[in-house]
């Protein structure tokens, strides 16, 4: 049986230690996979499944990928959320006794990839770890291994806050202890949709002691160690570019609840998950990949500290004013490569000479950056320029050692400059001299033999040779030449002195290639020592890049610097930063927002499609832009600092999520209500849609009342329940506003203009008309509406509505009180009755409705 060969035993043993990964088992020029790994890999990678030991009793499923093209296959698996264990032969097969020793040399996981082909240069690649403590607190650590960044956050406010925090971060993988309660693990995997990994052991690694020096809380040290242990376990090497953990003080940042980042489309759109159409897309005028990554980070964690925000605004202002200097700044920054990732690769050990030259060129640009910064008339910009300390030591190492245009390979020589190493110079001298000697020999032989076509050549198998064509053979003297190789029209010879020189040259070349490789490794080690300095410079360059991007986009789109005030938020002619870009003409209609001391809640009414949701999101985006340090889309803005933003999108608009039951909506409203403070901003967009009219309206009203009376958070509440506008009479800090629409020749015209007061009617039917519903249907709806509007008692309105709706389905109207339903009708009613709406997704509800309607139609 094929299973029991020594090699298969070795395989099974290694596989048993890496059950949750595809084991890439090195066999010669291939990585092979066996058993389930093979079956699954064949499916995922669309490669052929074969059998090992075919013809025998129990052949093993097997598939493989060539070593030289493995990177793409690995990438494919990692992108699907799998892990790949790379198992190499760790001894030379020629000297091995028995089966060649094999070991897993690296475990590649979605959160720990270092290979540049698997990293998107404008995105961070985060892995997180989560630890829980007996006092009910949690610690989250974030790490981007490609750049060595570590961030750590302590959460004492319970599990829900953990989910909200993690949900908003772009993590690929999360490392947890297996002691985390099952239901919490379950929520992580369901809500976050990332690879779950386990790390129970948290041995404190002495090597990484210094990374924890700034952590005084034992919980943080433990949590950080969990992540470091996992990294060590996957990478199987020590990494010198890991930075001490930066503590994220969550309460020093504007917190976005779980759905805000998605609903507000900060970094990607809801539907297509594309950057195009998101706020990031509008704002990303960075020119370096590092800057782009930092901008994304800032968007995910806006600031709360007025001083820090205003410092950013000052700098943006400076960049904005000096547009000529900004242009030159952008130009120079374009030639600064990804210092952070280069530093990461130095530590990881997969950087080549060409990359180091890139590093050199990038660092050489810094004095120029610094000089340009000094030309701006702004003290914080000058301060930034002073932080760009010229990394002389690193440059002198690189400058003296590496040639300008080295090859990609570091094992074939031609990377080190002449004069860098004496021994290398001697070898090179020897080889050059030897080659010179051979060139001279060729001339000498030509002369002596009088054969013009005589030449000296070289090939790998035979070494150096003298080649003479057959026609000239008779000119050769006897005895001097030894025949080495016969070709169809020539003979190749060797002489003792040529042989001797050949040995000298080859030896010198071999030695110099070896030496160059070793020298390169040493240079890399030397650069390693300077990694923190490179990282520090990278950080400053990224900041400069993001702030110049803010200035650039603010100028291009006519944004204004906001002032931060204490009480009255007032935006004059504000715009939605993304929609105004998407609309090709200048047709976006600007609107004011006023939330003064006497206004906490704005209740927004207006027809469908008039711009309610846009208006609400526009405010949230403006707030976020202001608090990350960018200027804002309006003519003038007084902003107040918000500590948190909550967004709740009613069921109708949340179809995309596919899981928006009324229950979810209520849970999320509850989250806003329990966590919001008077300094928060709450957006409730058509809440209560997911249930029947009365339920929904009642809940909507009580939610508004509750926020108004107990929380005092600034709140925008859009609703299609006109009845709620009456609240203005009872709630003194609630104001009605509406989006204006006008009727013109029986059609509705949306003006997208926000006005004070409540909307006069809802125009729903006009919208239906716009949507091209059949004319008889529209007419019928018009007459129902008339009846409804002539009825002033609300409950009668509802009765009428219900009966009239029924008449759409059933030919004959059934007289009140006489319920003579047919058998079929009864079954439909029963089905309707049995629906458990709380547990249905909108899609399921649609399907069920469709099915019922089909019954009625036939
Ligand atoms: P509602 O929430 O009232 O149904 P939306 O906010 O979804 O309406 O807006 C519907 C459409 O109207 C948007 O897709 C947008 O194209 C357009 N719109 C909204 N507000 C404006 C505005 N201020 N200026 C121009 N077009 C707007
Ligand atoms: Mg809407």
From TrEMBL:
<dbReference type="GO" id="GO:0140664">
    <property type="term" value="F:ATP-dependent DNA damage sensor activity"/>
</dbReference>
<comment type="similarity">
    <text>Belongs to the DNA mismatch repair MutS family.</text>
</comment>
<keyword id="KW-0227">DNA damage</keyword>
<keyword id="KW-0238">DNA-binding</keyword>
<protein>
    <recommendedName>
        <fullName>DNA mismatch repair protein MutS</fullName>
    </recommendedName>
</protein>
<dbReference type="InterPro" id="IPR036678">
    <property type="entry name" value="MutS_con_dom_sf"/>
</dbReference>
<keyword id="KW-0234">DNA repair</keyword>
<dbReference type="GO" id="GO:0005524">
    <property type="term" value="F:ATP binding"/>
</dbReference>
<dbReference type="Pfam" id="PF01624">
    <property type="entry name" value="MutS_I"/>
</dbReference>
<dbReference type="InterPro" id="IPR036187">
    <property type="entry name" value="DNA_mismatch_repair_MutS_sf"/>
</dbReference>
<dbReference type="InterPro" id="IPR016151">
    <property type="entry name" value="DNA_mismatch_repair_MutS_N"/>
</dbReference>
<dbReference type="GO" id="GO:0005829">
    <property type="term" value="C:cytosol"/>
</dbReference>
<dbReference type="Pfam" id="PF00488">
    <property type="entry name" value="MutS_V"/>
</dbReference>
<dbReference type="InterPro" id="IPR017261">
    <property type="entry name" value="DNA_mismatch_repair_MutS/MSH"/>
</dbReference>
<dbReference type="InterPro" id="IPR007696">
    <property type="entry name" value="DNA_mismatch_repair_MutS_core"/>
</dbReference>
<comment type="function">
    <text>This protein is involved in the repair of mismatches in DNA. It is possible that it carries out the mismatch recognition step. This protein has a weak ATPase activity.</text>
</comment>
<dbReference type="GO" id="GO:0006298">
    <property type="term" value="P:mismatch repair"/>
</dbReference>
<dbReference type="InterPro" id="IPR027417">
    <property type="entry name" value="P-loop_NTPase"/>
</dbReference>
<dbReference type="Pfam" id="PF05190">
    <property type="entry name" value="MutS_IV"/>
</dbReference>
<dbReference type="GO" id="GO:0003684">
    <property type="term" value="F:damaged DNA binding"/>
</dbReference>
<dbReference type="GO" id="GO:0030983">
    <property type="term" value="F:mismatched DNA binding"/>
</dbReference>
<dbReference type="InterPro" id="IPR005748">
    <property type="entry name" value="DNA_mismatch_repair_MutS"/>
</dbReference>
<keyword id="KW-0067">ATP-binding</keyword>
<dbReference type="InterPro" id="IPR007861">
    <property type="entry name" value="DNA_mismatch_repair_MutS_clamp"/>
</dbReference>
<keyword id="KW-0547">Nucleotide-binding</keyword>
<dbReference type="InterPro" id="IPR000432">
    <property type="entry name" value="DNA_mismatch_repair_MutS_C"/>
</dbReference>
<dbReference type="Pfam" id="PF05192">
    <property type="entry name" value="MutS_III"/>
</dbReference>
<feature type="domain" description="DNA mismatch repair proteins mutS family">
    <location>
        <begin position="680"/>
        <end position="696"/>
    </location>
</feature>
<dbReference type="InterPro" id="IPR045076">
    <property type="entry name" value="MutS"/>
</dbReference>
<dbReference type="InterPro" id="IPR007695">
    <property type="entry name" value="DNA_mismatch_repair_MutS-lik_N"/>
</dbReference>
<dbReference type="Pfam" id="PF05188">
    <property type="entry name" value="MutS_II"/>
</dbReference>
<dbReference type="InterPro" id="IPR007860">
    <property type="entry name" value="DNA_mmatch_repair_MutS_con_dom"/>
</dbReference>
<feature type="binding site">
    <location>
        <begin position="606"/>
        <end position="613"/>
    </location>
    <ligand>
        <name>ATP</name>
    </ligand>
</feature>
């Amino acid at each position: 049986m094929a299973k029991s060969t020594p090699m298969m035993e070795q395989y099974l043993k290694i596989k048993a230690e890496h059950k949750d990964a595809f084991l890439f088992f090195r066999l010669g020029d291939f990585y092979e996979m066996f058993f389930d790994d093979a079956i699954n890999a064949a499916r995922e990678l669309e490669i052929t499944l074969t059998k090992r030991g075919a013809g025998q009793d129990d052949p093993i499923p097997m598939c493989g990928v060539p070593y030289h093209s493995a990177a793409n296959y690995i990438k494919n698996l990692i992108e699907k959320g799998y892990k790949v264990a790379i198992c190499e032969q760790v001894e030379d097969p020629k000297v091995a006794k028995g089966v060649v020793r094999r070991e897993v040399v690296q475990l590649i996981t979605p959160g720990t990839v270092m290979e540049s082909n698997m990293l998107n240069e404008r995105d961070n690649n985060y892995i997180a770890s989560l630890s829980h403590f007996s006092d009910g607190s949690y610690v989250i650590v974030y790490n981007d291994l490609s750049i060595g960044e570590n961030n750590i956050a302590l959460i004492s406010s319970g599990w829900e806050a953990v989910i909200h925090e993690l949900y908003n971060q772009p993590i690929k993988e999360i490392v947890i202890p297996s002691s985390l309660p099952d239901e919490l693990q379950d929520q992580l995997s369901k809500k976050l949709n990332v690879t779950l990994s386990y790390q129970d052991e948290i041995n404190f690694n002495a090597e990484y002691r210094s990374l924890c020096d700034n952590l005084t809380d034992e919980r943080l040290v433990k949590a950080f160690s969990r992540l470091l242990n996992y990294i060590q376990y996957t990478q199987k090497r020590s990494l010198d570019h890991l930075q001490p953990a930066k503590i994220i003080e969550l309460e020093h940042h504007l917190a976005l609840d779980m759905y805000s980042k998605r609903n507000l489309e900060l970094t990607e759109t809801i539907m297509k998950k594309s950057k195009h159409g998101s706020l990031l897309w509008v704002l990303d005028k960075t020119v370096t990949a590092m800057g782009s990554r930092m901008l994304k980070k800032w968007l995910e964690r806006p600031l709360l500290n007025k001083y820090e925000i205003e410092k950013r605004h000052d700098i943006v202002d400076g960049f904005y004013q000096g547009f000529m200097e900004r242009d030159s700044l952008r130009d120079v920054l374009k030639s600064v490569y990804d210092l952070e990732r280069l530093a990461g690769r130095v530590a990881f050990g997969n950087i080549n000479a060409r990359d180091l030259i890139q590093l050199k060129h990038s660092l050489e640009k810094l004095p120029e950056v610094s000089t340009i910064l000094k030309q701006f008339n702004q003290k914080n910009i000058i301060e930034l320029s002073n932080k760009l300390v010229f990394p002389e030591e690193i440059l002198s190492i690189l400058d003296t050692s590496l040639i300008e245009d080295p090859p990609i390979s570091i094992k074939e020589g031609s990377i080190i400059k002449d004069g860098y190493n004496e021994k290398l110079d001697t070898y090179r001298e020897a080889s050059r001299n030897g080659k010179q000697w051979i060139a001279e020999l060729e001339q000498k032989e030509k002369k002596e033999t009088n054969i013009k076509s005589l030449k000296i050549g070289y090939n790998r198998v035979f070494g150096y040779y003298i080649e003479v064509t057959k026609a000239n053979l008779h000119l050769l003297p006897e005895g001097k030449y030894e025949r080495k190789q016969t070709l169809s029209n020539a003979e190749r010879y060797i002489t003792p002195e040529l042989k001797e020189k050949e040995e000298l040259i080859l030896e010198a070349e071999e030695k110099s290639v070896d030496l160059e490789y070793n020298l390169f490794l040493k240079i890399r080690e030397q650069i390693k020592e300077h990694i923190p300095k490179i990282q520090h410079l990278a950080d400053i360059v990224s900041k400069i890049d993001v702030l110049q991007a803010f200035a650039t986009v603010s100028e291009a789109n006519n944004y204004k610097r906001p002032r931060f005030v204490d009480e009255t938020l007032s935006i004059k002619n504000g715009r939605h930063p993304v929609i105004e870009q998407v609309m090709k003409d200048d047709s976006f209609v600007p609107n004011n927002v006023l939330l003064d001391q006497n206004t906490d809640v704005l209740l927004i009414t207006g027809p469908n499609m008039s711009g309610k949701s846009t208006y609400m999101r526009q405010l949230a985006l403006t707030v976020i832009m202001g608090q990350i340090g960018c200027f804002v889309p309006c003519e003038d803005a007084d902003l107040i600092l918000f500590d948190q933003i909550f967004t709740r999108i009613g069921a109708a608009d949340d179809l995309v999520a596919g899981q928006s039951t009324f229950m979810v909506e209520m849970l999320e409203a509850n989250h806003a209500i329990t966590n919001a403070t008077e300094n928060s901003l709450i957006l409730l967009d058509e809440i209560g849609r997911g249930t029947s009219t009365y339920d929904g309206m009642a809940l909507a009203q009580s939610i508004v009342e509750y926020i108004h009376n107990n929380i005092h958070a600034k709140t925008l509440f859009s609703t299609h329940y006109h009845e709620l506008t009456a609240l203005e009479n009872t709630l003194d800090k609630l104001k009605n506003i509406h989006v204006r629409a006008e009727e013109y020749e029986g059609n509705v015209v949306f003006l997208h203009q926000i006005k004070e007061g409540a909307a006069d009617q809802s125009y729903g039917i006009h919208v239906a008309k716009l949507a091209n519903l059949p004319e008889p249907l529209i007419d019928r709806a018009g007459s129902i509406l008339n009846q409804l509007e002539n009825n002033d008692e609300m409950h009668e309105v509802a009765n009428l509505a219900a009966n009239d709706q029924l008449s759409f389905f059933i030919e004959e109207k059934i007289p009140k009180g006489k319920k003579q339903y047919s058998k079929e009708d009864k079954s439909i009613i029963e089905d309707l009755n049995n629906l458990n709406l709380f547990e249905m997704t909108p899609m399921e509800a649609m399907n069920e409705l469709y099915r019922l309607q089909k019954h009625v139609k036939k």
